């Protein structure tokens, strides 16, 4: 009945790998007393714990892939732009998480330390370090 191949399977694979990498980094931050900065995933984490959080993350991936497949029925290039944009967003998130992890490698995130995930605080610290050098 349905015999259509996935048009952008490599892009989907890259998106899935970025999501898995984000999940691992987020788990590392959680194990070191970090907190989820995004509101909706924080609620999912609060009520459904880590297993529900992982299911939520992969449900988002499935939703985006299905959305891109629907878009690709009409315009393949537009669907490719959407999935590449989602990949670019995940790269930014992963870089930020890596920064959080490496910035606190000598003294892991201890509870409560909510400023550890505050972007404006991190920018202020970086500017202070640059100005003092």
What would you note in describing this structure?
The chain has 133 residues and is mainly alpha-helical. It has one domain (9-132). The chain is 74% helix and 0% strand. Helix 1 runs parallel beside helix 3 (76-103). The longest helix is centred in the middle third of the chain and has 34 residues, at 39-72. The N and C termini lie far apart (66 Å). The relative contact order is 0.14. The mean pLDDT is 81.
Task: Give me a quick take on this structure.
The chain is mostly helical and 133 residues long. 74% of the residues lie in helices and 0% in strands. It contains four helices and no strands.
Order of helices and strands: HHHH
In helices, the fraction of residues equals: over 70%
Q: How many independent structural domains?
A: 1
Number of helices: 4
From the N-terminal CA to the C-terminal CA, the straight-line distance is 66 Å
Beta-strand percent range: under 5%
Poorly predicted tracts of residues: none
- Rg over CA atoms, rounded to whole Å, is 18 Å
Average pLDDT rating: 81
What profile does the largest beta sheet have?
none
In total, the number of strands is 0
**Oligomer designation:** single chain
Q: What gross morphology would you assign? A: globular
Derived structural class:
mainly alpha
